[in-house]
Predict the structure.
Amino acid sequence: MTASPTQMVNLPRPKGRPVDLESAVIRFSGDSGDGMQLTGSQFTNTAALAGNDLVTFPDFPAEIRAPAGTLFGVSGFQLNFAAKSIYTPGDAPDVLVAMNPAALKVNLSDLKTGGILIINQDAFTPANLDKAGFTSNPLEDDSLNAYRLFAIDIGTQTERALAETGLSFKEVGRAKNFWTLGLLYYLYDRPLEYTLRFIEQKFKSKETIAEGNRLALKAGYLYGDVSEIFQETYEINSAQLEPGLYRNITGNQATAWGAIAAGQQAGLPLFYGSYPITPASDVLHELSRHKHFGVKTVQAEDEIAAVAATIGAAWTGQLAMTGSSGPGIALKGEAIGLAVAAELPLVVLNVQRAGPSTGMPTKTEQADLLQAMFGRNGESPVAIVAPQSPADCFEMMIEAFRLALGYMVPVIVLSDGYLANGSEPWKIPDVAALPKVKATFQTTPSDDFHPFQRDEDTLARVWPKIGSPGLEHRIGGLERSYETGHISYDPDNHQRMTEVRAKKIEGMARTIPDLKVYGSEQGGDILLLGWGSTFGAMRQATQIGREQGLDVSHAHLRYLNPFPRNLSELLHRFKRVIVPEMNTGQLLMLLRSRYLIPAEGLNKIEGKPFRVSEILSAIHGEKNKSRGQPW
Amino acid sequence: MVAVTKKDFQTDQEVRWCPGCGDYAILASVQRVMPTLGIPKEKIIFISGIGCSSRFPYYMNTYGFHTIHGRAPAIATGVKVSNPELSVWVITGDGDALSIGGNHLIHALRRNINIKILMFNNRIYGLTKGQYSPTSEPGKKTKSTPMGSIDQPFTPLSVALGANASFVARSVDREAKHLEMVLKRAAEHKGTAFVEIFQNCNVFNDGAFLHFTTKGTKADTQLHIQHGKPLLFGADKQRGIRLGGLHSLTPEVVTLGENGVTERDILVYDETDTSGTLPFLLSKLEPPVAPIPLGVFRAIERPTYDEGVNAQVADAQNKSPDASIEKLLKGGDTWVVS
């Protein structure tokens, strides 16, 4: 770092020469009310602005304010930042911040041996220890000997720093997270400017609270300097990313922006019908902020109404999208079938979460692939795409709309909780080079017009603009005649229409890119084949495996229905195909049934993303120990 | 092209309702009313759910969408929000609207989206061949209730009023003139119009409304509500409705000239009453206790949902006339990697 932003607020740089690191993993953990998500995102943005590559993993309970001090109320935010390209939030933290005994209890087993453990010792009261299930105080026994422990009276230090502010005891208590953030900024030699700016904007109307937070942040930083507790501090240089303008982006934000961009590309107003549900609600929030792009958002009375209104919008000629998570998609099933039958362009976003039923709303999973494929009555094919990283959500949303409009079909986008809330630096794309999304309306009568006249090539039906004179027509969920569009119960016609609906989806394969192999393109020992948010862990494991001399390659499917045309041939180039999934083997089932290959599953259903080490073990041939071994 | 006759609204599709079904009369009335509204045919949309009544759009030569069970109000909401210029009509039945689609109905009414909901009430499930519906009378014996229904029915208008519907009316399939008057009023209303149409299912619930539709006695069993007029009925308008005294809100049937009752005792109807109390009280009346009230129960003005959505979009666009994807993507914190 050449400039020293820290000095701009007259704070000393860390003493001595910081140790150069390639990457570091920090996990902030505390009560849901301790502000750990905020702390983590502040550190993230500061690291991003310093040019680090980074990946984040917020992990929080469904309860908004779980009872203080309990194990189930622990909220965590893990961040991996690096001077090189990275793909995952890191397997094991180098630094664990635990704001109370419960946070320590939940997270300690993940901390690297010899890792830095920063603890708010003020919270280690008998009552809190008891709530966390400790029979003795870990700060006083030998149980933390394997770590570099820094037990600090963070509460007291914050109180001292804020003594003159006139803030209440409770308000002072809330500033602990900024104190802690300040300390971590010292440890990693980070400037305070970004967070100071944030405090100023966030607490614009509450100047005393803003001042308290500023003081806490600086006090934490200075504590690092004055106390000299850290024998060394660290520096992580900016990563050699591809040149360009970058920003940090979460998956849900990229999803919303991708939909807005698709609307601009297509020249159509975006309609988003949705019902609040974790972890998809942020897409509704984000889109509701962008009405100036002509975006109409309808918060419907339920999931079914949300998709139904969206189908109405699609019929009327809007860029139509509904979004939810698995339980909501289950409710939307019948209506998605209507869009299949009526051949309407509809994008359905599923930000997957752990199921079945309500499951674990804030935990991630990829167990809705077969629901997307088959979760409707009758032969009801839809297109399915899956972004592979938070930023990739942007591109895949545009792609979903391209397919929906081009083929007049519903397209399901399978995101998940990990992508939705996780973030990464994103090289802002050249807007002029964004893919085209084309909407073709029929607005004037043609010979023998009927609403199911088709394009010979794509088999897409016409999209008559509702309100155009002479194009009045009736459509619906009843089977219709291929020839006339009228209701038909004719057996041959039903066979034909079923085939047409399937062929439309299959035909898309001609317009989607071939699957690429990272590693041994010509084939080799092992292919890791995945989809969705497992991308990062799989890519990193493949890199490490190859460095270790293993012939392992990686391919990642962003198109799940139809599959890329070269998939079958590609699979046969490898001796083994391993399919890591956060489910019991759903893609695996599709691959085995379609291509009759002995692909192997690597399955994990813990509500957490894969660790790189878990995939590495599989590459090394260790038996799959996952509990969900399916087939 | 502006359609001028009923014929312009007829399709070439063979109508597939049972011979003698009340739906035929309603279809004819709707086809007669449409050309009188001054709305171009291509701007008229019919959307239905599932059930006998929901086949309706196939027989109207307008844009039509035969959707899925109970969801027509929600689909219509998407259509109207997307294009407020369209005149959007929902055709539904007592099962479609009040059972499987009850949620969408009440929320459409509370939002006051500018659509017209025509609910054909035959108090039976017809297309599934004769099960009791949410408007069937208690004790009704059907295929699914051989020992009699133990369900308590909804009064559709009470439900609509409870949801604060801005327009609530009721008519009968065989009262063409009255029905067409009600349909015209619904079309002219700005906001959700809820119209209950008693419709005879001559196969599974024949004669369900004979107790107030029989020619000879209907003058005594129907009460035609008119705004600003006293609630009088009977062949010579000698009977009427009054509230049961100072301390009672129970409507009672009285006869002019009996027990000192004069026209001054009779309730004068106000369809614009915002409290909704009077229409609610009347919605519960039915022979043999009292005549069945027909007509416009309520017509009040409230902001509409579709205008609200589009006004917010227009407002946001006026405030940010130079919105671009470029600006969106580059807004906030960014950094350059060189």
Summary: The longest helix of chain B spans residues 305-319. Chain B has one domain: 1-208+303-338. Chain B touches chain A through 59 residues (CB under 8 Å). Chain B has a mean pLDDT of 96.
